[in-house]
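Consider this today:
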Amino acid sequence: MAPTGKVLIVGCGIAGLATAWSLLRRGFEVEMFEQGPIPNPKGSSWDEHRITRHAYGEFEGYSYLMPQAFRLWDLMWKDLGVTHYDPCGAVYFQREETPWYHGTSTALTRMGIGFRDVPLGKAAARFPMLNLDTVSRVVETDGAGMLFPSRIVLDLVVFLAGKGVVFHANHLVSEIDAEHGTVTANGATYSGDRVVIAAGAWADRLVPSLRAHATPSRQAVMFLAPPPDHAQAWAEASVMADLGPESSCYMLPPRRGTRLKIGDHVFTRRGDADEDRTATDLDVTRLTRVLKRVVKDFDRYQVLERKACFYTVTDDEHFIQNAVGAKGWIISACSGHGFKLGALTGELAAQAIAGERSADEVTTMAAGLVLEPA
């Protein structure tokens, strides 16, 4: 297929790489810019594992996007020649009534995806490493598991380079002209037919108008080694999330060569994306308090790493995709759960750039506002 134009993409995380992948399939030329190495270990896409799921609670619109995301991941696995997904399922622990169950049960029923209550007595035997004393409901869902981000972005970089994508590593972008389709990096100016800004928590430095909608947020995670008597239970576990207001966290088991990871899901809405990625005592204060409540015998766990990640967060936790100027397009995946939609995020951007969907329709879909299953 003859090239249909050149697209410059700023940011080599999953949003930028998936956009390049989708554009390449349509015959576009692509050049990509990253302020550090490619992939960049400071970027939020560099991680051992992330949850993916169809269950989205009250955010039903994202539930209805997930079947498309799963189909695109499958297409990407074919291109990469390897599957970076573990369909281990998901389990959710409720400690009081929330809107989560109604939205989840409604969406999963409409999409034909299985879910079921786990009796509390069986849950206690199945999850001996957790403190379930105040849990009132346990829900298990199908259509969920783990993606392995670092492996995905590494394989995408190699694949895209082999298909002709030009990468500019260690190129700090200082200016974007979205009206004329130019990018200035390391003192040189590059021209394209379109420019995509997918720079994560740094995006508002290039598009200041983004600050009115999205705020960078420094989030804490811990990588842990469980005590020997709990190691097997963790290794056999699904991905899990605690939904209690004072115990909110997500848990990813040590599978396929990863470590046990538990993260905080209360947004700090503070910090600077250039800060160090080692989590401070302040970063993990709440998470440590939560883990002592949720994880049985937490004092016996070894802390292998404390890490800080940066995401962009909107007030309603919706993602942003929209046109900027005559030739620009911005992608801002919010609240840390953007990776699971990464393949679809890139596809939607490519559809908008190729004129296959209107910009308004893509903006609406990215915001999770389409309330019908695809």
Observations:
- The first helix runs from residue 14 to 25.
